[in-house]
Amino acid sequence: MKKQLWTAGFTLVQQIGNYGALAIICLVSYDLYLEGKVTVGDITQYIFYCQTLIFQFLIMSFVIGNVLGVKGVNDALAKI
């Protein structure tokens, strides 16, 4: 149960941070678009990059969860 709580907590914090940053990027890029400093393609490319980065962090959170699970199993086996 402890592993699931750590994994869920890490994923929650990570998703709030990543999607919050993405929302801020969308708001700022909208102003830049209206001023003519960026194009829709630039914004789309950066949002795609951010989505890829979010997916990589999601994979990292599952890896950390699995490492914690292996550590828990090793501790349980050491007690035996």
Give a structural overview.
The chain is built from two helices and no strands. Helix 1 runs antiparallel to helix 2 (40-79). The chain has one domain. The mean pLDDT is 83. The radius of gyration is 19 Å and the shape is rod-shaped. Helices cover 92% and strands 0% of the residues. The chain is mostly helical and 80 residues long.
Label this structure with key terms:
0% strand, 80 residues, mainly alpha
Task: Briefly note the structural class of the backbone.
Answer: mainly alpha
User: How can the largest sheet be summarized?
Assistant: none
Mean pLDDT: 83
> What distance separates the N and C termini?
20 Å
Strand content: under 5%
Number of domains: 1
User: How many helical elements?
Assistant: 2
Q: How much helical structure, as a percent, in the residues?
A: over 70%
Radius of gyration: 19 Å
Number of E-type strands: 0
Topology pattern, helix = H, strand = E = HH
Characterize the overall form: rod-shaped
Residue runs with pLDDT of under 50 for 5 or more positions: none
**Assembly state:** single chain
Please give a quick description of this structure.
The chain is mostly helical and about 80 residues long.
Note the topology:
Blueprint: H1 2-35, H2 40-79
Helix pairs in contact: 1-2
